[in-house]
Amino acid sequence: MEWLRQIHDIRFDTPLGLFLSGPLVVAALVLFLWSVAPAVKGRVSTGFIVWLRVTWAAFLLPAVTGVILALGGMKVASATDAGGGTTRYGFPVDPSRDWEHWMYVAFTLLTLYVIEVLIKGRVIEHRLGLKFLPVATLFMYGCTFMIGRVAVFPGSTPGT
Q1: Helix, strand, or coil here: 84?
Q2: What is d(CA 80, CA 142) in angstroms, rounded to the nearest whole number?
Q3: Which of 9, 34, 39, 55 is the Cys-Cys partner for 27 at CB 3.0 to 4.6 Å?
Q4: DSSP 136
């Protein structure tokens, strides 16, 4: 279980760590920046599709390990008491953050699927769908940012 937790908890401890806290957040930010070109040009490059697959991989690795850890009874760090009513990061325990963490994971999964639909052009006309690509990728970046944030910091009602 410890090995899975280490894979799941990969974080970047840099000055930009709040905004680029892990591989998924970085992949989502690059995808957002890259999504402007298809929206303007009206076509998707092969490089964008490859980076989208990299983003899927960056999402699925912690998601699968997180599901396995959850089935083993573990919760997100901000909802786990490490002793004395604080988390391993030294903040007050907030059990409600566990469900919030899962909510943002679900939003990220849904957004990745929507991005796939937009670049395929099957549900909505291709050029029109690509215009919404930056909005979807920005939303996904926000969700990935919040996945990491709720895993570490307590909410407005710690202890409830």
Answers
A1: coil
A2: 24
A3: 55
A4: H
